[in-house]
């Protein structure tokens, strides 16, 4: 009789400040081409940057990142190689059955990582995990959530 109550209380309690999970249920192909679609594009040849605005969708393999604005920083001296992408405004990262929302995301293309910050909300099926920031290693699918981590787990879920 007491066990279901203890389990329910444990699920309602905040998790420690760091939680590890997987994202996307699969490994992303970080060597695949990065495709970008948007309503507008502004290119600055002087500093080697580009700014996509309006309904921006970035795709790489099975991963999709959408936002209102995405600033692209190219590698120094190489306008053909993307160094990083910084997404702001209604940021959503989707990989397989998993989706994460945040205020900002920085995709470090060379490292194959995405750092989401600002009210991060991760949905995996019926399970939800929130925190201040989440780092996703796209090669392994491993994710770490930090800062006031909270979780709602559905019975029978993972």
TrEMBL record:
Domain annotation Organic solvent tolerance-like N-terminal: ranges: 35-141
GO annotation (BP), single: lipopolysaccharide transport
Pfam families given in the database record: LptD_N (PF03968)
Database matches in Gene3D superfamilies: Lipopolysaccharide (LPS) transport protein A like domain
UniProt keywords, alphabetically: Periplasm, Signal, Transport
Compartment annotation: Periplasm
GO molecular function: glycolipid transfer activity; lipopolysaccharide binding
Entry annotated with the keyword Transport: yes
InterPro entries for the chain: LPS_export_LptA, LptA, OstA-like_N
Signal peptide (from-to): 1-19
Domain of life the protein comes from: Bacteria
GO cellular component: a single term: outer membrane-bounded periplasmic space
Self-association state and partner proteins as the record states: Component of the lipopolysaccharide transport and assembly complex.
Role of this protein: Involved in the assembly of lipopolysaccharide (LPS). Required for the translocation of LPS from the inner membrane to the outer membrane.
Family: Belongs to the LptA family.
Annotated PANTHER family: LIPOPOLYSACCHARIDE EXPORT SYSTEM PROTEIN LPTA (PTHR36504)
HAMAP family: LPS_assembly_LptA (MF_01914)
Protein name: Lipopolysaccharide export system protein LptA
Species classification: Bacteria, Pseudomonadati, Pseudomonadota, Alphaproteobacteria, Rhodobacterales
Gene name of the encoded protein: lptA
């Amino acid at each position: 009789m007491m066990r279901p109550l203890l389990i329910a209380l444990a699920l309602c309690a905040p998790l420690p400040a760091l939680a590890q999970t997987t994202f996307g249920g699969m490994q992303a192909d970080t060597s695949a081409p990065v495709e970008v679609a948007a309503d507008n594009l502004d290119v600055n040849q002087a500093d080697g940057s580009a700014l996509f605005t309006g309904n921006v969708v970035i795709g790489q393999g099975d991963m999709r990142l959408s936002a209102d604005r995405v600033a692209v920083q190219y590698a120094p001296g190489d306008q053909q190689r993307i160094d990083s992408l910084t997404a702001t405004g209604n940021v959503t990262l989707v990989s397989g059955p998993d989706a994460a929302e945040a205020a900002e995301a920085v995709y470090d293309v060379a490292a194959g990582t995405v750092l989401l910050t600002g009210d991060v909300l991760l949905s995996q099926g019926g399970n939800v995990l929130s925190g201040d920031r989440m780092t996703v290693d796209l090669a392994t699918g491993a994710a770490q959530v930090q800062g006031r981590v909270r979780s709602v787990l559905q019975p029978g879920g993972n």
